[in-house]
């Protein structure tokens, strides 16, 4: 199977080159036979990639330790599910997974499209991306490399990756990343042909990819929260930022594409955002797998930097050439009449999202920038990102709250005040109630006030449209996404502003109070399984003599891994999460780190709302 897998990659590479030659000759001679041969060659290349992927999965599942990739990521005690997930755990496998997803998307395009001229051009450009990744895999990251010696057991999967959320996070992230390739190649084809802009294909693929990327970010944040053991879900790590950057520019594109289609404006800006989103997905893949910047998420070091950088430079130069060449052609027929119209607000929103992207990008790559300038790597702290982006994220929430009270094209102050006075009155009352209940810090109050203004405006608009019940879900699907963002914003602001962290030293059967909670330490139990030995603490949790549950944090000692791994335990309650980490123990005492994260579940519920709204929007005509 090792030979079959690698030879399939070689032949896939050859078929991709042959496909390009058929395409060029077919267009040159205007011969339909060669264009059909071009398509068949590309399909053959994709099926060979599928065969190669199946071969690697077979080698993993059968634990063929003569294959270096298998020996690095699988061992005898690793269960079936995590053995399968090892396919995308390392750089070599993840690059093959990348190109497999691209192949699946391409087959779907073949099935759905009508073989128009722009489709053929798009497949042509897509082929070059196939060739690049095939070149990477064959010459720089071969997953079928044979070990020069025999071993009886492998190293096994990194224990941090042996988590339910990590089964979901990389696939969704990659499906989101790679989906943005389709809008990009169609945009390039449009710039080449100067024919009708394929708005529907680009927007639907953009929305689909954005939705999958959202799920990828959700599952990644949840993994960090339950696995890394520091009490949070986002620390502005370089690889976290790499997933957020294309999500931000993709969000900007989805907003401005609405008015571009309606009013024939902002076409240049839309095309630039599509290009930027694609480039950021390639940079994200590179950042994760190159190890160029230290990250808790980057599990590999490699020699893929030169080809990746070369590929990025070629794409950037090629796009800029086409963009500058067609700059006058891309000029819209109309202009935005008022910044206080729906169109003006959507454009402003896209500019803010771009600015946030720029801040995060500079911060992420600052170690490389500082090393180039002063020969010293300087990493920026999480507080830099939080302080630099918080005002802009707040402004986005404000725009979302205001925008649903605006009209298209025009702005009349009298009509605007008629729409906002009642939700503004309700928001004022709600804000005073929140202050009375103890929410007195400025930023949480500001976020909550904006959020409730959005909510009241949203509910009033729905109430007015109650006569067309069947269409409410479709009409307000973008608002469901915004409602999710609002809910997430409340969760972030409250949990960050009012979180409690305390180091505990508890004797057996001793009770300790934290706010209104009482913790009773019952001791440590020891056990083992084929993969690891572990110690698990047991702590009963009470609130005013009411039993809430048992917290059971662990420390695991994996047999094929040197460092002990802490497994946190979380007790969700209505007000938030009790989050407990076992730090150590002796005969008499247990040592813990306890976090109380108020309303943190709103972060996850909000993202679920975003996903729900996105799914409705995909099926909206």
Summarize the structure.
By secondary structure, the chain is of the alpha+beta class. The chain folds into three domains: 156 residues; 251 residues, no CATH class; 102 residues, no CATH class.
Notes on the protein architecture:
63% of the residues lie in helices and 12% in strands. With 621 residues, the protein is of the alpha+beta class. It folds into three domains: 1-156; 158-408, no CATH class; 500-601, no CATH class. The strands form two sheets. Strands 2, 3, 4, 5, 6 and 7 form a six-stranded antiparallel sheet that branches. A four-stranded antiparallel sheet has the order 1-10-9-8. Helix 9 (199-227) packs antiparallel against helix 10 (238-263), helix 9 (199-227) runs antiparallel to helix 20 and helix 11 packs antiparallel against helix 12 (305-325). The longest helix has 30 residues, at 32-61. Residues 296-301 have low confidence and may be disordered.
